[in-house]
Amino acid sequence: MDRQAIITKIQNMMKLQESTDFEGEAAAAAQMIKKLCKQHGISVEEANNPVALDETFESFKKMNSAYALLLNAVAKYYDAMLYVKRDGINNYQIIGTEAQQIETKLYFEYLNDVMEREADKAYKAEKVIAFLHDKRVDRSFKTNFKKAYAQTIGERLVEMKKSEGDHAHKEAVQSALSKRQFGKGKRVGGASGAGAHVGGSVGAGASLNRQAGGHSRRSLVGA
Q1: Which class for 180: exposed (0-12), middle (13-18), buried (19 or more C-beta within 10 A)?
Q2: Distances (CA, A) of 216 to 17, 30, 197
Q3: Lower CB count within 10 Å: N or C terminus of the chain?
Q4: Residues 49, 26: contact at Cβ < 8 Å?
Q5: Torsions phi, psi of 83, nearest 5?
Q6: Can you give the pTM of this predicted structure?
Q7: CA separation (Å) from 43 to 7, 138, 144?
């Protein structure tokens, strides 16, 4: 078991110690924390620091450009990192603390759901227009729509982050990345063609707040 795994185990014991109502369980957790810290030369202060994890977000066979663009934009917004791991199975991997992992997942799911719904609506509207003009809808309409939507959302998140500042766990990710080496990833091309203009326009006007009241999306760590 590596040092990071030990720290994670200690952190889990700390959570148990704080949450349990049973004195015996709390005492046992305290003893385990003391034992692990002494055995592996880890201080309680070090164990209290957030640890960035390398977690699989989702596996895929063929990369969906819009999906990847949007996920990367959300991960960057939370100062986490997205990369693609190709080891027999293709995986989207997120490097971030537990809070960053959860925040990225929840916010991405919201934005991705909106993107899919808006793409369907735009495609149906385009079909009506095409029918009236005795034409066919371009086969790449939805793909172009979603790529442009994702790009525009990404640009807006960059601007929003400038005013909100860094995530509270940014240093944990930077610490994890300092021990890793990554090759140059394949760059996803920009959106163009039928549907791109509409997708960009919809992305520019889409709400970036999951809650109607517009509360911050960083409530898990109070950043």
Answers
A1: exposed
A2: 30, 35, 29
A3: N
A4: no
A5: -145, 165
A6: 0.75
A7: 10, 61, 52
pLDDT tens string, the chain, 223 residues long: the values are 677 778 788 888 888 888 888 888 888 888 888 888 888 887 776 666 778 889 999 999 999 999 999 999 999 999 999 999 988 889 999 999 988 999 999 999 999 999 999 999 988 887 787 777 777 877 888 999 999 999 999 999 999 999 999 998 898 899 889 888 776 666 666 666 778 888 999 999 999 986 533 444 555 555 4
Q: What DSSP character marks residue 56?
A: E
Distance separating alpha carbons of residues 63 and 89, to the nearest angstrom: 12
H-only helix segments in 85-195: 98-132, 141-164, 170-177
The domain spans of the chain are: 3-48, 53-205
